[in-house]
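Pilot study result, target chain (228 residues):
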Amino acid sequence: MRWKAIGKISLALNLFIILFLIGKRLYFSNRQETPSQSAEFLNTMRNDAFADLPIDSSDIVLVGTSMTEGLFLNEMLNDGHILNRGIGGNTSRMMAARISKIAEGHPRTIFLEMGICDLFFHISLDTFARYFDQTIQNIRTTSPGTRIIVQSILPVGDAYADLRPQLERFNDFMKAACIRQHLTYIDLFTTFQENGRLNPEYDMDGIHLNGRGYARWAEQLIQKLGAN
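Predicted structure:
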């Protein structure tokens, strides 16, 4: 079964994700930059790499932060029409600025994962809300036929407990905005939380998921696609 196939690769994903995260941290640790400057650099670099990659109306595009960057749904399902446009460190402002380029290809569906980096950079809810709404508007203006699916911010581990109150407010805003704007909303927080924190079964480093966690996330997205 498809779920069993996803489960079998979770151990391999664990190893890949560990190497991926270590590589990124080693790279950026050698650059004399603030986290914000590193995020801007990575955003520019990845957008340049994505610029000439085609997107068309048969594609499903995953847009988000490093959380999405590590979600290899296309390889899990062996489906070349699932495209990953996750960029580590991406804030809502960065996504609002780059989303029109993605929408120009008129993809069938865009999955949005945003907010965790805004929390890290202490961006206010009002600012996040403005760029969230701008992101949605940019998609709808550029590609009215694209289905938009918004995902909640996932829970965090105890090392990041200070982020939890604002994280809850961000999620409450997105859920209400999706109702108001008739968007599909996926509550990943409930799926991955245990007593309000990231379930240790899925926890890689307090923020990112391990291979088992990514397999669980993939199930959620596949179910949402299959239900419609």
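One observation from the pilot: The domain at 2-226 is CATH 3.40.50.1110 (Rossmann fold). A full batch analysis is planned for the follow-on phase.
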